[in-house]
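Hello,

I think I submitted the acetamide job twice by accident. Can you confirm which output corresponds to this input? Input:
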Amino acid sequence: MLLPKQSRNCVTGLAAACSLLLIACSPEEVRQVNLIPKSEQMTMTGGTFTVDSLALFGGQSSRNIKTVIDEAWSGNPEGYQLDVTPGGIDLRAGSPDGLFYGMQTLRQLYAGGEVPCVSIRDNPRFGYRGLHLDVSRHFFSKEEVMKLLDVMSFYKLNTLHMHLTDAGGWRIEIDKYPKLTSETAFRTESDWRKWWDGRDRKYLPEGTPGAYGGYYTKEDIRQIVSYAAGRHIDVIPEIEFPAHSDEVFVGYPEFCCTGRPYTTGEFCVGNPATLRFAEDVLTEIMELFPSKYIHIGGDEARKVAWKSCPKCQHLAREVGGFEEVQCYMIEHLELFLAEHGRVMMGWDEILKNSLRSSSVPISYRGQRGGIEGANRGLNVIMSPGEMIYFDWYQADPCTQPRAMSGFSPIKKVYSFYPVPDTPEMAAANESMIKGEYVAPSSVEYIYNGASKNVLGVQGCMWTEFVNTSEHLEYMMFPRMLAVAEIAWTPQNRREWHDFRRRINREIPLLRSRGINAFQLSNDVEITVTR
Ligand code: ACM
Ligand code: ZN
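Support: Only one job matched these inputs. Its output is below.
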Protein backbone atom coordinates (compact mmCIF):
# COMPACT_ATOMS: atom_id res chain seq x y z
CA MET A 1 0.00 0.00 0.00
CA LEU A 2 1.27 3.48 -0.81
CA LEU A 3 1.88 5.59 2.23
CA PRO A 4 -0.37 8.66 2.33
CA LYS A 5 2.49 11.08 2.15
CA GLN A 6 3.18 13.98 -0.14
CA SER A 7 5.85 13.87 -2.79
CA ARG A 8 8.88 16.02 -2.05
CA ASN A 9 8.33 18.00 -5.23
CA CYS A 10 4.79 18.98 -4.25
CA VAL A 11 5.83 20.28 -0.85
CA THR A 12 8.76 22.22 -2.23
CA GLY A 13 6.61 23.67 -5.00
CA LEU A 14 3.95 24.83 -2.59
CA ALA A 15 6.45 26.38 -0.21
CA ALA A 16 7.84 28.37 -3.12
CA ALA A 17 4.35 29.46 -4.17
CA CYS A 18 3.56 30.61 -0.63
CA SER A 19 6.68 32.68 -0.25
CA LEU A 20 5.91 34.36 -3.56
CA LEU A 21 2.43 35.17 -2.34
CA LEU A 22 3.78 36.58 0.88
CA ILE A 23 6.07 38.90 -1.04
CA ALA A 24 3.31 39.95 -3.41
CA CYS A 25 0.58 40.68 -0.83
CA SER A 26 0.27 42.99 2.14
CA PRO A 27 -0.35 41.26 5.50
CA GLU A 28 -3.99 42.41 5.47
CA GLU A 29 -4.62 40.80 2.12
CA VAL A 30 -2.92 37.58 3.14
CA ARG A 31 -5.00 37.33 6.31
CA GLN A 32 -8.23 38.47 4.72
CA VAL A 33 -8.38 35.71 2.21
CA ASN A 34 -7.55 32.90 4.58
CA LEU A 35 -10.76 32.76 6.57
CA ILE A 36 -12.36 29.30 6.22
CA PRO A 37 -15.28 29.07 6.16
CA LYS A 38 -15.69 32.44 4.50
CA SER A 39 -17.85 34.84 6.50
CA GLU A 40 -21.19 36.23 5.39
CA GLN A 41 -19.77 39.77 5.15
CA MET A 42 -16.31 41.16 5.80
CA THR A 43 -14.74 44.58 5.33
CA MET A 44 -11.06 45.17 5.89
CA THR A 45 -10.92 48.55 7.58
CA GLY A 46 -7.13 49.04 7.55
CA GLY A 47 -4.42 48.74 10.18
CA THR A 48 -4.02 46.19 12.95
CA PHE A 49 -4.72 45.72 16.63
CA THR A 50 -1.66 44.54 18.54
CA VAL A 51 -2.47 42.02 21.22
CA ASP A 52 -0.87 39.34 23.30
CA SER A 53 -2.26 35.89 22.48
CA LEU A 54 -2.82 35.19 26.17
CA ALA A 55 -4.93 38.32 26.48
CA LEU A 56 -6.95 37.31 23.45
CA PHE A 57 -7.37 33.56 23.94
CA GLY A 58 -6.31 32.93 27.52
CA GLY A 59 -9.55 34.11 29.10
CA GLN A 60 -7.94 37.18 30.67
CA SER A 61 -10.26 40.17 30.64
CA SER A 62 -9.02 43.39 29.12
CA ARG A 63 -10.63 46.75 28.53
CA ASN A 64 -9.52 46.55 24.89
CA ILE A 65 -11.26 43.26 24.25
CA LYS A 66 -15.02 43.24 24.71
CA THR A 67 -17.04 40.06 24.29
CA VAL A 68 -20.70 40.71 24.86
CA ILE A 69 -23.87 38.65 24.78
CA ASP A 70 -26.27 41.14 23.30
CA GLU A 71 -29.78 40.74 24.74
CA ALA A 72 -31.22 42.55 21.73
CA TRP A 73 -29.55 40.24 19.22
CA SER A 74 -32.14 39.30 16.63
CA GLY A 75 -30.01 37.29 14.23
CA ASN A 76 -28.99 33.67 14.07
CA PRO A 77 -28.12 32.29 17.53
CA GLU A 78 -24.77 31.08 16.17
CA GLY A 79 -24.03 34.38 14.42
CA TYR A 80 -21.75 37.19 15.63
CA GLN A 81 -20.54 40.69 14.86
CA LEU A 82 -16.80 41.26 15.12
CA ASP A 83 -15.18 44.68 14.92
CA VAL A 84 -11.44 45.00 15.22
CA THR A 85 -9.94 48.50 15.29
CA PRO A 86 -6.44 49.67 16.20
CA GLY A 87 -7.89 50.39 19.65
CA GLY A 88 -9.37 46.99 20.38
CA ILE A 89 -11.83 44.21 19.69
CA ASP A 90 -15.58 44.26 20.01
CA LEU A 91 -17.26 40.87 19.65
CA ARG A 92 -21.02 40.60 20.04
CA ALA A 93 -23.42 37.72 19.68
CA GLY A 94 -26.81 36.57 20.85
CA SER A 95 -25.49 33.45 22.58
CA PRO A 96 -22.35 31.69 23.83
CA ASP A 97 -22.36 29.78 20.51
CA GLY A 98 -22.08 33.02 18.56
CA LEU A 99 -19.27 34.28 20.78
CA PHE A 100 -17.51 30.96 20.33
CA TYR A 101 -17.63 31.23 16.53
CA GLY A 102 -16.47 34.84 16.68
CA MET A 103 -13.48 33.61 18.69
CA GLN A 104 -12.74 30.95 16.06
CA THR A 105 -12.65 33.72 13.47
CA LEU A 106 -10.25 35.68 15.66
CA ARG A 107 -8.06 32.60 16.00
CA GLN A 108 -7.85 32.44 12.23
CA LEU A 109 -7.16 36.14 11.83
CA TYR A 110 -4.54 36.34 14.57
CA ALA A 111 -0.90 36.12 13.49
CA GLY A 112 2.34 37.31 15.01
CA GLY A 113 0.76 39.31 17.83
CA GLU A 114 -1.63 41.19 15.55
CA VAL A 115 -5.19 41.03 14.31
CA PRO A 116 -6.02 42.90 11.11
CA CYS A 117 -8.73 45.52 11.50
CA VAL A 118 -11.98 44.14 10.15
CA SER A 119 -15.69 44.44 10.46
CA ILE A 120 -17.36 41.04 10.12
CA ARG A 121 -21.02 40.17 10.27
CA ASP A 122 -21.39 36.44 10.18
CA ASN A 123 -24.11 33.81 10.36
CA PRO A 124 -24.06 30.13 9.48
CA ARG A 125 -26.02 29.03 6.45
CA PHE A 126 -27.10 25.85 8.24
CA GLY A 127 -27.67 24.83 11.85
CA TYR A 128 -26.35 21.31 11.17
CA ARG A 129 -22.73 21.20 10.02
CA GLY A 130 -21.63 17.64 10.32
CA LEU A 131 -18.80 15.19 10.12
CA HIS A 132 -19.46 11.45 10.25
CA LEU A 133 -16.81 9.02 11.44
CA ASP A 134 -16.92 5.23 11.02
CA VAL A 135 -15.12 3.80 14.05
CA SER A 136 -16.35 0.26 13.41
CA ARG A 137 -14.38 -0.77 10.32
CA HIS A 138 -11.39 0.68 12.15
CA PHE A 139 -11.33 1.83 15.72
CA PHE A 140 -9.93 5.29 16.39
CA SER A 141 -8.84 6.22 19.89
CA LYS A 142 -10.56 8.77 22.10
CA GLU A 143 -7.49 10.99 21.64
CA GLU A 144 -7.81 10.95 17.84
CA VAL A 145 -11.52 11.76 18.12
CA MET A 146 -10.67 14.70 20.39
CA LYS A 147 -8.07 15.92 17.91
CA LEU A 148 -10.75 15.88 15.21
CA LEU A 149 -13.15 17.74 17.50
CA ASP A 150 -10.55 20.48 17.90
CA VAL A 151 -10.19 20.88 14.14
CA MET A 152 -13.93 20.68 13.56
CA SER A 153 -14.61 23.53 15.96
CA PHE A 154 -11.86 25.66 14.43
CA TYR A 155 -13.73 25.44 11.11
CA LYS A 156 -17.14 25.91 12.73
CA LEU A 157 -18.51 22.39 12.29
CA ASN A 158 -20.94 21.58 15.08
CA THR A 159 -21.96 17.91 14.80
CA LEU A 160 -19.98 14.68 15.04
CA HIS A 161 -21.93 11.61 13.93
CA MET A 162 -20.22 8.49 15.30
CA HIS A 163 -20.89 5.25 13.44
CA LEU A 164 -20.33 3.08 16.51
CA THR A 165 -21.48 -0.34 15.37
CA ASP A 166 -21.07 -2.35 12.20
CA ALA A 167 -19.60 -5.65 11.07
CA GLY A 168 -16.07 -4.33 11.61
CA GLY A 169 -16.59 -4.45 15.37
CA TRP A 170 -18.89 -3.18 18.15
CA ARG A 171 -17.29 -0.10 19.69
CA ILE A 172 -19.22 0.95 22.76
CA GLU A 173 -19.61 -0.67 26.14
CA ILE A 174 -23.19 -1.76 26.91
CA ASP A 175 -23.66 -3.05 30.46
CA LYS A 176 -26.63 -5.29 29.72
CA TYR A 177 -24.88 -7.02 26.81
CA PRO A 178 -21.19 -7.22 27.79
CA LYS A 179 -20.34 -9.73 25.05
CA LEU A 180 -20.85 -6.98 22.44
CA THR A 181 -17.45 -5.63 23.41
CA SER A 182 -15.81 -8.59 25.15
CA GLU A 183 -16.45 -10.84 22.11
CA THR A 184 -16.68 -8.60 19.05
CA ALA A 185 -14.67 -5.40 19.47
CA PHE A 186 -11.56 -7.23 18.26
CA ARG A 187 -10.82 -9.36 15.22
CA THR A 188 -8.15 -11.49 13.60
CA GLU A 189 -6.91 -9.06 10.95
CA SER A 190 -6.40 -5.28 10.75
CA ASP A 191 -6.84 -4.98 6.98
CA TRP A 192 -10.60 -4.80 6.71
CA ARG A 193 -10.85 -5.99 3.12
CA LYS A 194 -8.59 -9.00 3.73
CA TRP A 195 -10.50 -9.84 6.88
CA TRP A 196 -13.97 -9.33 5.43
CA ASP A 197 -13.26 -11.35 2.28
CA GLY A 198 -11.20 -14.00 4.06
CA ARG A 199 -12.43 -17.54 4.70
CA ASP A 200 -11.43 -17.51 8.36
CA ARG A 201 -12.95 -14.12 9.24
CA LYS A 202 -13.36 -14.18 13.01
CA TYR A 203 -13.92 -11.82 15.89
CA LEU A 204 -11.68 -12.45 18.88
CA PRO A 205 -12.34 -12.15 22.60
CA GLU A 206 -10.86 -9.09 24.28
CA GLY A 207 -7.38 -9.85 25.56
CA THR A 208 -6.51 -12.38 22.84
CA PRO A 209 -2.84 -11.84 21.98
CA GLY A 210 -2.49 -10.07 18.62
CA ALA A 211 -6.22 -9.24 18.36
CA TYR A 212 -6.95 -6.05 16.40
CA GLY A 213 -9.59 -3.51 17.46
CA GLY A 214 -10.85 -1.64 20.48
CA TYR A 215 -13.89 0.03 22.00
CA TYR A 216 -14.90 3.05 24.04
CA THR A 217 -15.71 2.51 27.68
CA LYS A 218 -18.64 4.49 29.04
CA GLU A 219 -16.13 6.80 30.70
CA ASP A 220 -14.39 7.35 27.33
CA ILE A 221 -17.72 8.31 25.79
CA ARG A 222 -18.53 10.72 28.62
CA GLN A 223 -15.15 12.37 28.06
CA ILE A 224 -15.70 12.62 24.28
CA VAL A 225 -19.19 14.08 24.72
CA SER A 226 -17.97 16.58 27.28
CA TYR A 227 -14.91 17.56 25.21
CA ALA A 228 -17.21 18.07 22.22
CA ALA A 229 -19.67 20.17 24.26
CA GLY A 230 -16.79 22.42 25.29
CA ARG A 231 -16.27 23.03 21.58
CA HIS A 232 -19.97 23.59 20.84
CA ILE A 233 -20.26 20.24 19.09
CA ASP A 234 -23.07 17.70 19.51
CA VAL A 235 -22.16 14.05 19.24
CA ILE A 236 -24.81 11.91 17.56
CA PRO A 237 -24.44 8.16 18.14
CA GLU A 238 -25.38 5.69 15.46
CA ILE A 239 -26.36 2.12 16.35
CA GLU A 240 -27.13 0.07 13.23
CA PHE A 241 -30.54 -1.60 12.84
CA PRO A 242 -31.70 -3.84 11.25
CA ALA A 243 -28.61 -4.56 9.05
CA HIS A 244 -24.81 -4.22 9.26
CA SER A 245 -24.92 -6.11 12.54
CA ASP A 246 -22.96 -9.34 11.94
CA GLU A 247 -20.87 -8.74 15.05
CA VAL A 248 -23.89 -8.75 17.39
CA PHE A 249 -24.75 -12.36 16.57
CA VAL A 250 -21.41 -13.75 17.70
CA GLY A 251 -22.23 -13.01 21.34
CA TYR A 252 -26.02 -13.05 20.91
CA PRO A 253 -27.01 -15.42 18.06
CA GLU A 254 -30.59 -15.55 19.34
CA PHE A 255 -31.24 -12.14 17.75
CA CYS A 256 -30.67 -13.30 14.15
CA CYS A 257 -32.95 -15.46 12.02
CA THR A 258 -30.61 -18.47 11.77
CA GLY A 259 -29.62 -18.47 15.44
CA ARG A 260 -26.00 -18.96 14.30
CA PRO A 261 -23.12 -16.45 14.10
CA TYR A 262 -21.35 -15.61 10.83
CA THR A 263 -24.48 -16.38 8.77
CA THR A 264 -26.20 -12.99 8.38
CA GLY A 265 -25.85 -9.32 9.24
CA GLU A 266 -29.53 -8.69 9.86
CA PHE A 267 -31.55 -8.83 13.03
CA CYS A 268 -34.54 -11.17 13.19
CA VAL A 269 -37.22 -8.49 13.21
CA GLY A 270 -39.96 -11.11 13.61
CA ASN A 271 -38.60 -12.00 17.05
CA PRO A 272 -39.98 -9.62 19.71
CA ALA A 273 -36.80 -10.20 21.76
CA THR A 274 -34.85 -8.35 19.04
CA LEU A 275 -36.91 -5.23 19.67
CA ARG A 276 -36.27 -5.53 23.43
CA PHE A 277 -32.52 -5.78 22.68
CA ALA A 278 -32.69 -2.63 20.55
CA GLU A 279 -34.58 -0.78 23.28
CA ASP A 280 -32.12 -1.88 25.96
CA VAL A 281 -29.13 -0.75 23.91
CA LEU A 282 -30.75 2.57 22.98
CA THR A 283 -31.63 3.18 26.63
CA GLU A 284 -27.97 2.96 27.62
CA ILE A 285 -27.01 5.04 24.58
CA MET A 286 -29.46 7.80 25.57
CA GLU A 287 -27.95 7.85 29.07
CA LEU A 288 -24.55 8.64 27.54
CA PHE A 289 -25.44 10.98 24.69
CA PRO A 290 -27.57 14.07 25.39
CA SER A 291 -28.04 14.75 21.65
CA LYS A 292 -31.49 15.56 20.31
CA TYR A 293 -30.94 13.04 17.50
CA ILE A 294 -30.16 9.34 17.79
CA HIS A 295 -29.21 7.63 14.52
CA ILE A 296 -30.55 4.11 14.05
CA GLY A 297 -28.84 3.21 10.76
CA GLY A 298 -31.52 1.74 8.51
CA ASP A 299 -29.34 1.28 5.43
CA GLU A 300 -28.65 -1.62 3.12
CA ALA A 301 -30.75 -4.40 4.64
CA ARG A 302 -30.61 -7.33 2.19
CA LYS A 303 -33.57 -9.10 3.82
CA VAL A 304 -32.32 -12.53 2.65
CA ALA A 305 -32.45 -14.37 6.00
CA TRP A 306 -35.91 -12.92 6.71
CA LYS A 307 -37.32 -14.75 3.71
CA SER A 308 -36.56 -18.19 5.12
CA CYS A 309 -37.28 -17.38 8.76
CA PRO A 310 -40.71 -18.48 10.08
CA LYS A 311 -40.90 -15.53 12.50
CA CYS A 312 -40.04 -12.96 9.82
CA GLN A 313 -42.31 -14.66 7.27
CA HIS A 314 -45.15 -14.42 9.75
CA LEU A 315 -44.42 -10.74 10.39
CA ALA A 316 -44.18 -10.08 6.64
CA ARG A 317 -47.66 -11.55 6.16
CA GLU A 318 -49.02 -9.30 8.91
CA VAL A 319 -47.39 -6.07 7.72
CA GLY A 320 -47.62 -6.63 3.96
CA GLY A 321 -44.19 -7.79 2.76
CA PHE A 322 -40.49 -7.93 3.55
CA GLU A 323 -39.92 -4.23 2.72
CA GLU A 324 -42.49 -3.51 5.39
CA VAL A 325 -40.63 -5.74 7.88
CA GLN A 326 -37.83 -3.21 7.71
CA CYS A 327 -40.32 -0.34 8.07
CA TYR A 328 -41.86 -2.11 11.07
CA MET A 329 -38.56 -2.08 12.96
CA ILE A 330 -37.79 1.52 12.00
CA GLU A 331 -41.24 2.66 13.11
CA HIS A 332 -40.83 0.83 16.41
CA LEU A 333 -37.51 2.55 17.09
CA GLU A 334 -38.88 5.92 15.99
CA LEU A 335 -41.71 5.62 18.50
CA PHE A 336 -39.41 4.35 21.25
CA LEU A 337 -37.05 7.31 20.80
CA ALA A 338 -39.93 9.78 20.65
CA GLU A 339 -41.33 8.38 23.92
CA HIS A 340 -37.94 9.16 25.44
CA GLY A 341 -37.84 12.70 24.10
CA ARG A 342 -35.42 12.00 21.26
CA VAL A 343 -35.68 12.29 17.50
CA MET A 344 -34.81 9.50 15.10
CA MET A 345 -32.23 10.08 12.41
CA GLY A 346 -31.45 7.42 9.79
CA TRP A 347 -29.97 6.80 6.34
CA ASP A 348 -32.33 7.64 3.49
CA GLU A 349 -33.91 4.16 3.33
CA ILE A 350 -36.07 5.34 6.25
CA LEU A 351 -37.99 7.41 3.68
CA LYS A 352 -39.85 4.17 2.92
CA ASN A 353 -41.61 4.76 6.24
CA SER A 354 -44.34 7.31 6.56
CA LEU A 355 -42.17 8.94 9.31
CA ARG A 356 -43.04 11.42 12.00
CA SER A 357 -42.55 15.00 10.88
CA SER A 358 -39.55 15.41 13.20
CA SER A 359 -37.56 12.37 11.98
CA VAL A 360 -34.52 13.16 9.88
CA PRO A 361 -33.26 11.17 6.88
CA ILE A 362 -29.68 11.64 5.72
CA SER A 363 -29.57 11.66 1.93
CA TYR A 364 -26.56 9.52 1.01
CA ARG A 365 -27.64 7.76 -2.19
CA GLY A 366 -27.18 10.92 -4.17
CA GLN A 367 -29.43 13.91 -3.53
CA ARG A 368 -32.77 12.33 -4.35
CA GLY A 369 -33.63 11.25 -0.79
CA GLY A 370 -32.97 14.78 0.41
CA ILE A 371 -35.12 16.27 -2.32
CA GLU A 372 -37.94 13.81 -1.69
CA GLY A 373 -37.74 14.27 2.08
CA ALA A 374 -37.68 18.07 1.91
CA ASN A 375 -40.62 18.08 -0.50
CA ARG A 376 -42.50 15.79 1.89
CA GLY A 377 -42.01 18.40 4.61
CA LEU A 378 -39.29 16.49 6.50
CA ASN A 379 -36.09 17.98 7.78
CA VAL A 380 -33.19 16.43 5.88
CA ILE A 381 -29.41 16.32 5.94
CA MET A 382 -27.61 16.28 2.61
CA SER A 383 -24.68 13.88 2.35
CA PRO A 384 -24.58 12.48 -1.18
CA GLY A 385 -21.94 9.76 -1.18
CA GLU A 386 -20.90 10.51 -4.73
CA MET A 387 -19.98 14.08 -3.79
CA ILE A 388 -19.08 14.42 -0.13
CA TYR A 389 -17.89 11.02 1.09
CA PHE A 390 -14.24 11.25 2.06
CA ASP A 391 -13.46 7.59 1.40
CA TRP A 392 -13.47 8.19 -2.38
CA TYR A 393 -10.27 8.94 -4.26
CA GLN A 394 -9.22 12.59 -4.15
CA ALA A 395 -6.65 12.34 -6.95
CA ASP A 396 -5.50 9.91 -9.63
CA PRO A 397 -5.91 6.44 -8.04
CA CYS A 398 -2.52 5.39 -9.42
CA THR A 399 -0.91 7.87 -7.05
CA GLN A 400 -3.09 7.17 -4.02
CA PRO A 401 -3.52 4.61 -1.27
CA ARG A 402 -6.43 2.25 -1.87
CA ALA A 403 -9.79 3.97 -1.47
CA MET A 404 -13.42 3.37 -2.40
CA SER A 405 -13.77 3.22 -6.13
CA GLY A 406 -15.28 6.66 -6.84
CA PHE A 407 -13.48 9.92 -7.59
CA SER A 408 -14.21 13.00 -5.47
CA PRO A 409 -11.47 15.60 -5.70
CA ILE A 410 -11.98 18.70 -3.64
CA LYS A 411 -13.35 20.79 -6.49
CA LYS A 412 -16.16 18.28 -6.94
CA VAL A 413 -16.86 18.32 -3.19
CA TYR A 414 -16.90 22.12 -3.16
CA SER A 415 -19.24 22.31 -6.15
CA PHE A 416 -22.08 20.63 -4.23
CA TYR A 417 -25.29 22.67 -4.00
CA PRO A 418 -26.78 21.61 -0.64
CA VAL A 419 -30.18 23.11 -1.42
CA PRO A 420 -30.96 22.11 -5.00
CA ASP A 421 -34.08 24.23 -5.28
CA THR A 422 -33.77 25.10 -8.95
CA PRO A 423 -33.62 22.63 -11.85
CA GLU A 424 -30.20 24.05 -12.73
CA MET A 425 -28.69 23.42 -9.30
CA ALA A 426 -30.24 19.96 -9.05
CA ALA A 427 -28.93 19.13 -12.53
CA ALA A 428 -25.44 20.38 -11.69
CA ASN A 429 -25.39 18.10 -8.64
CA GLU A 430 -26.83 15.21 -10.61
CA SER A 431 -24.17 15.62 -13.31
CA MET A 432 -21.47 15.30 -10.65
CA ILE A 433 -23.26 12.36 -9.03
CA LYS A 434 -23.67 10.48 -12.31
CA GLY A 435 -20.40 11.64 -13.88
CA GLU A 436 -22.19 12.71 -17.08
CA TYR A 437 -24.23 15.66 -18.23
CA VAL A 438 -27.77 15.69 -16.86
CA ALA A 439 -30.29 18.18 -18.26
CA PRO A 440 -32.21 20.49 -15.89
CA SER A 441 -35.46 19.38 -17.50
CA SER A 442 -34.90 15.81 -16.35
CA VAL A 443 -34.29 16.21 -12.60
CA GLU A 444 -36.31 16.48 -9.43
CA TYR A 445 -35.55 19.53 -7.32
CA ILE A 446 -36.71 21.07 -4.07
CA TYR A 447 -39.93 22.98 -4.57
CA ASN A 448 -40.73 26.46 -3.52
CA GLY A 449 -40.98 26.79 0.22
CA ALA A 450 -39.32 23.46 1.03
CA SER A 451 -35.72 24.76 0.95
CA LYS A 452 -35.89 25.54 4.66
CA ASN A 453 -36.27 21.80 5.31
CA VAL A 454 -32.60 21.23 4.55
CA LEU A 455 -31.09 21.30 8.04
CA GLY A 456 -27.56 21.05 6.77
CA VAL A 457 -24.79 18.95 5.29
CA GLN A 458 -22.46 16.24 6.46
CA GLY A 459 -19.19 14.86 5.12
CA CYS A 460 -18.84 11.13 5.77
CA MET A 461 -15.65 9.29 6.60
CA TRP A 462 -16.05 5.54 6.10
CA THR A 463 -12.96 3.63 7.08
CA GLU A 464 -12.93 0.29 5.26
CA PHE A 465 -9.57 1.23 3.76
CA VAL A 466 -8.31 3.51 6.49
CA ASN A 467 -6.62 2.00 9.50
CA THR A 468 -4.28 4.65 10.85
CA SER A 469 -4.89 8.16 12.16
CA GLU A 470 -2.42 9.49 9.61
CA HIS A 471 -4.39 7.97 6.75
CA LEU A 472 -7.69 9.09 8.28
CA GLU A 473 -6.54 12.71 8.27
CA TYR A 474 -5.15 12.36 4.77
CA MET A 475 -8.58 11.35 3.45
CA MET A 476 -10.49 13.98 5.45
CA PHE A 477 -8.29 17.00 4.92
CA PRO A 478 -8.60 19.30 3.18
CA ARG A 479 -11.96 18.03 1.85
CA MET A 480 -13.54 18.52 5.26
CA LEU A 481 -12.86 22.24 4.97
CA ALA A 482 -14.80 22.33 1.70
CA VAL A 483 -17.77 20.80 3.53
CA ALA A 484 -17.31 23.28 6.39
CA GLU A 485 -17.60 26.15 3.92
CA ILE A 486 -20.62 24.61 2.15
CA ALA A 487 -22.25 24.34 5.57
CA TRP A 488 -21.47 27.82 6.81
CA THR A 489 -21.07 30.26 3.92
CA PRO A 490 -23.94 31.64 1.82
CA GLN A 491 -24.08 30.15 -1.66
CA ASN A 492 -23.47 33.51 -3.33
CA ARG A 493 -20.21 33.97 -1.38
CA ARG A 494 -18.76 30.67 -2.52
CA GLU A 495 -16.52 30.56 -5.56
CA TRP A 496 -14.08 27.79 -6.44
CA HIS A 497 -11.05 29.85 -7.44
CA ASP A 498 -11.30 31.98 -4.34
CA PHE A 499 -11.64 28.85 -2.16
CA ARG A 500 -8.81 27.15 -3.98
CA ARG A 501 -6.46 30.03 -3.14
CA ARG A 502 -7.49 29.97 0.50
CA ILE A 503 -7.29 26.19 0.86
CA ASN A 504 -3.81 26.13 -0.66
CA ARG A 505 -2.70 28.53 2.04
CA GLU A 506 -4.49 26.58 4.74
CA ILE A 507 -2.91 23.20 4.01
CA PRO A 508 0.55 24.10 5.35
CA LEU A 509 -1.17 25.47 8.48
CA LEU A 510 -3.08 22.23 8.92
CA ARG A 511 0.15 20.31 8.55
CA SER A 512 1.95 22.56 11.00
CA ARG A 513 -0.81 21.74 13.50
CA GLY A 514 -0.04 18.04 13.11
CA ILE A 515 -2.79 17.18 10.62
CA ASN A 516 -1.63 14.93 7.80
CA ALA A 517 -3.54 16.79 5.08
CA PHE A 518 -3.41 15.76 1.43
CA GLN A 519 -1.55 18.28 -0.72
CA LEU A 520 -3.62 19.65 -3.58
CA SER A 521 -2.25 19.46 -7.05
CA ASN A 522 -3.41 20.74 -10.41
CA ASP A 523 -4.98 17.47 -11.46
CA VAL A 524 -7.66 17.39 -8.77
CA GLU A 525 -10.37 19.21 -10.66
CA ILE A 526 -13.34 17.53 -12.25
CA THR A 527 -15.64 19.05 -14.80
CA VAL A 528 -18.69 17.67 -16.50
CA THR A 529 -19.50 19.32 -19.81
CA ARG A 530 -22.33 18.94 -22.20
C1 ACM B 1 -24.08 4.20 3.67
O1 ACM B 1 -23.19 4.72 2.96
N1 ACM B 1 -24.32 2.89 3.58
C2 ACM B 1 -24.88 4.97 4.57
ZN1 ZN C 1 -36.24 -13.71 11.42
